[in-house]
Design a protein that fits this description.
- This protein has a four-stranded mixed beta sheet. Strands 2-3-7-6 form a four-stranded antiparallel beta sheet, with no helix packed on it.
- By secondary structure, it is an alpha+beta fold.
- It is built from ten helices and ten strands.
- A hairpin with a 2-residue loop joins strand 9 and strand 10.
Length: 385
Amino acid sequence: MSKELEREMLRATAKKVAGKVLASRAEEIDASGEFPWDIVEVLGKQGFLSILLPEEYGGMDGDITSFCLVIEETAKVCGASSLLILVQGVGTMPIMIAGNDEQKKKYFHRIASENNLVAFTLTEPESGSDAASLKTRAMNHGDHYTLNGRKCFITNGGVANLYSTFALTDPEKGSDGISAILVERGTPGLSSGKAENKMGMRGSNTTDVIFEDCVVPKENLLGEEGQGWEIAMKTLNMSRPAVGAQAVGIAEGALDIAINYSSERHQFGRPIAKFQGIRFMVADMATQIEAARALVYKTAAAIDSKEGDSQMLSAMAKYFASDVAMRVTTDAVQILGGYGYMKDYKVERMMRDAKLTQIYEGSNQVQRMVVAHHLFARKGDQQAG
């Protein structure tokens, strides 16, 4: 079977699951803010929580393009459910990048067969956009590390079975002293804070993760000491187009609602879809979505092919698609008018969910800095040549 056919089958399955299961739960999940364990079960059964893992460990052996397709389809109806898939991929990427055979065998089997959830544990109260300034410390005691510190805004923070954690093993070296360490749930000294009461993505669990003399065996180190920053940046480079795909999905869902509503809503004796003002809004919304989708999947293809540096494209895809999602969902609320502002209609939830895509995985302002850095560095290389 060709890769393209595999991807289309995967997209069709994701679309079916989204329509039959996720759509009916989205409103309730958002209203209650409770973590949807039933959705975890459904997504795990379909293999969506282990989509990137090799088949030999029970995964789907999917690539970044496949990952994006599933996230896009699920995000059309439920942002929080799509985030379950997204964060699972982000949490497992450090193991994919730097894990040894024993670590992969141990943890990937648990993820694939037991729906073990994973968290990517990087952000701290004083190191958000400046992630390299983290303060969490991992003291090397020979056969184990002792971790002390506090992480914040960690997705899956209170429900994860495994934490891909970044901590300083050599503070004197700055970012070169950061290491990646796997911490299992139940490890003494590991705890989580209260679940944050968020504006959007409310069904996703977000908490502080706290390390207090948390003892972790040496064999849980990913790669070598000092490689943590490189592992984190490689992870984010791979995951940012998936955030873009999530944003595209949210925007698509909002556009569909706006089109249906404007076709049925009558004012001044005819459907509001007949008015040029509405038609131009819808045309712009659709065009922006198509442009964002093209950039997202160009980036995913570049990462999958491993040809060249995809970091600039990854930053572009993330910030452009998420900005589009914010514009499109806001316009969808406008088209629905007063109804769009009511919780009985889905577009206000989509607008709240879209906002987070502009913030996490590196704020859009930081992504613009990344793009500009690459452009000016390229200019400098050309002048030097």
